[in-house]
Amino acid sequence: MALPSINPTTTNSWQKLQEHFATVKNLQMKDLFAQDSDRANKFTIKWDDFYVDFSKNRITEETFKNLLELADDVKLKEAIKSQFSGEKINLTEGRAVLHSALRAPESSVIKLDGENVVPEVYNVKRKIESFTGQVVNGDRKGYTGKPFTDVVNIGIGGSDLGPAMVVEALQYYKNHLTTHFVSNIDGDHVNEVIKKLNLETTLFVIVSKTFTTQETISNANTIKAWFLNSANEEDIAKHFVAVSTNIESVKNFGIDANNIFPMWDWVGGRFSLWSAVGLSISLATGYHNFDGLLKGAHKMDEHFKNEDFKSNIPVVLALISVWYNNFFNAESEAVIPYSQYLNQFATYLQQGIMESNGKSIDRNGNPIDYETGTLIWGEPGTNSQHAFFQLIHQGTKLIPADFIGFTKSLHGNQDHQNKLMSNFLAQTEALLNGKTKAQVVAENTPENIIPFKVFAGNKPTNTIFIDKLTPESLGKLIAMYEHKIFVQGIIWNIYSYDQFGVELGKQLASKILKEFSGEEKNEHDASTANLLNYYKKMS
Ligand code: F6P
Question: Burial of 65 by CB count in 10 Å (0-12 exposed, 13-18 middle, 19+ buried)?
Fold first, then answer.
């Protein structure tokens, strides 16, 4: 069964939301709090170790009710069922979308074309577990008989961002192996990494679902050539492993068949860190922590599948985001984790959110005349407070923000933790309440300066409190955003799991590359032609 394809703007709930918007758009959240002493409780979801307060949003009970009706009108329930049951909902690529099967318990039965995929998932998991054990314990050695000290993940996009983000996020749980990530085609990137390595003790993990990606294959070849300056062809088997669906090309690269970790076309690149793409996570933190991450994600899957929409965290966050995107015309959303460990979280989410929902053709193949994918950006607090918060507080744009905080710190420095979290709470409170002219005047502010010190407030935030940053809670958090992406794609009536938009630039780049070597001559616009000639002259 295909996904429902309902233009959301034609639904009853959308009409209601539109009329309702006209009456509530200027409401002040602080008045809503004053009118209802139970507002914070009404708009809070407590689940497991998550406490999600969405009361600081420009919504009333009626808004919420209408948004929940929208979820029903676009047949979200049916869509969730289709995804989890292995239907080929990625219609434009003819694929199922089963990243949730990667984190399902071994006893689950998830059928694709009549075959249960869970046993093969567990075969690969066992391979990851045993390989990780051998590398971490030092039983597996490099070509000169030394145990490994460093791991280099060579991949880009989903084959880089997820593992890189998680390895950084789980730094506290890391073992002795030093992990590096090479992604960019910029040769300075790979050379800077090579500079730090001792090849006798370095393991290279080439991650590419297709094994055709220019960046990854070029970087892998450069590293292989560097390796072969000192070692022999037969040593490659000891130092290079690969994660891919393209087994033939991996073998052609010279990688031993035993060193291939398969993945499947039903796992999208940006949703793949749960597969063998996460091998560097397992190597860096140990298999038990990788497994913990998967278990957490599975718990979120169950919550998403089974919970009523009104207390379903990904559904509620998605609906609120649609409210701002499509009714308030907010263009972007910020994600602000108050944890330095989540330094790369927003960058990771950018691929997940923008590659998935940056679409303008609907599921019927027609151009869309309403807004879809949000821009996503962010940096950890408190650093971001000293960078871009000025614009969120006093700029002209409405920027809804997710504040993610952990109630306990990992190193247990309570003084720092209290300072961190006092900032967290202060910011969401300041964004809500702002600062009135009367308050500014009361501070003896000179007359001509008063307007500059007034804060309008009424800036929406979600607070996502989690007890502690663990592999499991991180798994839940990532899965929460994955499901939010899916819900929004369903509402916007788009296909979230293809990414044709990245192809055009790739094709043109390969033509231009051939012009550099004189192999091809192509027509260009005058600007590109000038720039190309300038580059050829100067490079
Ligand atoms: O940027 C496009 C893309 O296909 C992403 O979706 C993917 O994560 C990335 O390239 C890398 O692809 P691969 O794993 O096949 O090298």
Answer: middle
